[in-house]
Specification:
Elements: E1 3-6, H1 16-25, E2 31-36, H2 48-57, E3 63-68, H3 76-82, E4 86-90, H4 97-106, E5 110-115, E6 133-137, H5 152-165, E7 171-175, H6 183-189, E8 193-196, H7 198-201, H8 206-215
Parallel strand pairs: 1-8, 2-3, 3-4, 4-5, 5-6, 6-7, 7-8
Helix pairs in contact: 2-3
Bound molecules: D-xylitol-5-phosphate and zinc ion (ZN).
Length: about 220
């Protein structure tokens, strides 16, 4: 069964607490929080104070925090203190990825690394064993509602083989353009977790959409 992580990038930010509570009540496994700094990506969203408010409003939520920010090491502890359960940094946004991974693990959060569409999975050759999660971008990060980039499927397959060959429990999460009509393809390629923003928030029945994503094997 797929782990489903609805992206609150598509939520009504004026009612964020209610929106997150609703997603949890409807069976969302994780809540995907897209942090954007206007430098690493051409868009700005929110920072740790908003994560802290979500954490207080919905204590039961598993907060899957995707840091699309330059120099993430400077903010890891702040996001952890705010209530992040899982912290994912971009390989392209840090000069010393190994150090960023160790720093993430030191906060006690689940440790994730994300790769942009152009970044090969081999970038993770010497750090894969230290990761709880790899987040493969299936669009260029920065905006919701984009169409997926096909090359991600080969990358998922190759990364899944690296993980299985080493017998690791590392999870593969995919993010961008994941919709009901293509979700099976991501799972068949080897993904474990599906992020979906517009696919869930744009559905007539969010609960049915979450249930349908979760039912994919
Ligand atoms: C894109 C974000 C995604 C985004 C996905 O930069 O990282 O999490 O919310 O949105 P959809 O599912 O609409 O492509
Ligand atoms: Zn994301």
């Amino acid at each position: 069964m797929a782990i489903v992580s609805p992206s609150i990038l598509s939520a009504d930010f004026a009612r964020l607490g209610e929106e997150v509570q609703n997603l949890v009540d409807l069976g969302a496994d994780w809540i995907h929080c897209d942090v954007m700094d206007g430098r690493f990506v051409p868009n700005i969203t929110f920072g740790a104070p908003v994560i802290a408010h979500i954490r207080r409003a919905v204590p039961a939520a598993f907060l899957d925090v995707h840091l699309m920010i330059e120099e993430p090491d400077r903010y890891l502890q702040q996001f952890r203190d705010a209530g992040a359960d899982q912290l994912t940094v971009h390989a392209e946004a840090t000069r010393h990825l190994h150090r960023s991974i160790q720093a993430t693990a030191a906060t006690g959060a689940k440790t994730g690394v994300s790769l942009n569409p152009h970044t090969p999975e081999t970038e993770l050759e010497y750090v894969l064993d230290d990761l709880d999660l790899v987040l493969l971008m299936s669009v260029n990060p920065g905006f919701g509602g984009q169409s997926l980039i096909e090359s991600v499927f080969a990358k998922i397959e190759r990364l899944r083989k690296m993980i299985d060959d080493r017998g690791l429990p590392t999870l593969i999460e995919v993010d961008g353009g994941v919709k009901m009509h293509n979700a099976q393809r991501f799972m068949d390629a080897g993904a474990h977790a599906l992020v979906s923003g517009s696919g869930i928030f744009g559905a007539d029945d969010r609960g049915a959409a979450i249930a349908a994503f979760k039912a994919i094997v």
